Amino acid sequence: MVVNSRHIRRSNDIWRRRKCTACDSVFTSIEKADLAAALRLEPTTKVLEPFSRDRLFVSIYESCRHRTTALRDAANLTQQIVTLLVNQQEKSGLVTRGQLIAIVKQVLSKFDRAAATYYTAYHSD
User: How many Cβ atoms are within 10 Å of 74's Cβ, its own excluded?
Assistant: First the structure.
């Protein structure tokens, strides 16, 4: 049985406090959206494929590799981009390659111009 439930501010996760009806134990769970099932990526070949957060993370990490905090920065930027994607594509769940690249460029250009330039060089519309 769910006793308490809250949205986590910076992600699309849900924090829940649960209570077992059999033994009265209380425990916490964090529920995350399955992005591979929730979002579909439409590349230029027009064949839909599941969205891969890991592929997005690697491309952002490669763009931020010049920074001393590249791993942490890439993780935070990836989470920010995924949140934007989920909020923008709530109904259809379909993201085109161009939309994804535009969102990543926008976020990276606000964060680090060198990273945005590197990303742009390897990811074109």
Answer: 22
Whether the pTM exceeds 0.70: the reply is no
Residue 40 and residue 28 share a domain: no
d(CA 104, CA 25): 43
Distance (Å) of CA 56 to CA 1, 30, 46, 85: 36, 23, 19, 12
The pLDDT value given to residue 108 = 93
Same domain, 96 and 51: yes
Give the structural domain span for 65.
35-122
| Model confidence pLDDT, tens digit, residues 85-123 | 877 766 677 888 888 889 999 999 999 999 999 999 988
Are both 69 and 89 inside the same structural domain? yes
Query: What are the CA-CA distances from residue 92 to residues 52, 60, 86, 113, 118 (Å)?
Result: 17, 25, 10, 31, 30
Tell me the three state secondary structure of residue 16.
strand
The domain tally of the chain equals 2
